[in-house]
Amino acid sequence: MNSHEPPRESPDTRTRPVRTAYARMTASQHDISRADADYQRFRAAYLEVARHEPGHEVALALIGADMDRAHARLQALMGLPRLPFTHEPSTVVRREALRYTEENS
After folding, report:
1. For 104, which of 9, 13, 42, 78 is 20 to 30 Å away at the CA?
2. Could you tell me if 93 and 50 are in contact, meaning their C-beta atoms sit under 8 angstroms apart?
3. Taking a C-beta distance cutoff of 8 angstroms, is the pair 31, 77 a contact?
4. How do the domains of the chain map onto residue ranges?
């Protein structure tokens, strides 16, 4: 027996890191798609309320806060930093909704 021969690795030992990385990547993609779906759902709800009931400030504030949190979570999952000078997404969407209602009135 040759004592300089490297120890044999089982096939499972070599592929385990690849499987783990693939599982993490798949889970990450799933988390990002779920966060994006949450953000889009809150955005649609916000636009619906802003267009049809623009005076309902409580609903707009609550949905807007949820939308802002969903947007921040999406950015964090994607690795984007939170910039201090950016507007909250709900503020931008509200301007879009007001512009839409003014144009269609």
Report:
1. 42
2. yes
3. yes
4. 31-103
Per DSSP, which regions of the chain are E strands? none
pLDDT in tens, 11-66: 555 667 777 777 777 778 889 999 999 999 999 999 999 889 988 999 999 999 99
Token readout for 12 is 């499972």
Place of tokens 């993609």: 29
Residue pair 40/93 in contact (Cβ under 8 Å)? The answer is: no
Tell me: the pLDDT tens digits for 19-30?
A: 777 777 777 888
The DSSP H or E segment spanning 85 is: none
Instruction: Return the closest-CA partner of residue 75 out of 29, 38, 32, 42.
Output: 32
